[in-house]
Amino acid sequence: MKNILIIALGFLFTIGGAQAADNQAASTETNESNTLHWAGCGITKKAFMKELAAEYEKIYGVHFVLEGGGATKGIRRVKNRSVNIGGSCRPKIAGAPEERFVRMTPVAWDALVVMVHKDNPVSNISLRQVKELYEGKIGNWKELGGNDAPIELLVRKGKISGVGSTLRQLVWGNPDQEFKGSAEYPSSGPLEKAIVANPNAIGISGISSARKRDVKLLALEGKVPNYENIKSGSYLLYRPLYITYMARNNPRLKEIKRFIKFALSKRGREIIRAQGVVPYLDAIALTSKQKEQRKIVREMQEQRLSGQVQESQSEKP
After folding, report:
1. Which residue positions in the chain have pLDDT lower than 50?
2. DSSP state at residue 182
3. Residue 161 to residue 186: CA distance in whole angstroms
4. In terms of DSSP H, where are the helices of the chain?
């Protein structure tokens, strides 16, 4: 009788344990169904993702787990399905198998901005000066109208980061352009923090994150990188910010599309605008101006080079 009682109790504990495990699994499954894992560039994250995700959760009960790591991760982690959804501040690289089939929906506009320490006396920089700075032809702040001190140019590591790739395309039209930097950083956050602490540092990042740092943002060709100048395209170095996802065999596709629809909706655009960021649909004309944007940049560079040649010739005896 005693043995029977022990067996019966063991059976009951087994059933109880199995039920508890089933309940835990069901709870985990429910939580996963109400969670979207996002990874991507920190600039996109700071531009609108945190605020959009919080509002979306209030309305639909879907929680976002947000990770940074850069634009490349925002595309490639979506491709390898280690996250459900991502963010990028650059388009896909043509022919890269790690980025093939990833869908990209533009949601907002960002701009590349030149950052310096808050106490730096320099307030404006030209495209020619940006070009020569990154080519190693300018090395002292007095060449930019500042103090007599060496320039420490901080750059992003690699050539396919969101900032690095966009800068190479817009200013040089060459994705393989080499930069002569003093130090390299794996992502925009550490680079921005380094400029906050270094009076001689200079670097470029996206305005959506740079504007939240205690730094000075330089005007470019006399145009400050504010909301209106980016929206109108008069500030030249603008670019889209994307939401990325996989459409093929994606069990979360319906939820992802609903989030994108929300981001582009009237309420979504209000949230983006409240962060000082231009919603994509508010400046849709910039899409058609992107080719013109590169043409303007190229012509300005050619005009300056031509002016330099004429000035040099006029100085000859």
Report:
1. 1-30, 311-312
2. S
3. 9
4. 2-33, 42-44, 50-60, 71-79, 127-134, 162-167, 188-197, 207-210, 227-232, 253-264, 266-274, 285-314
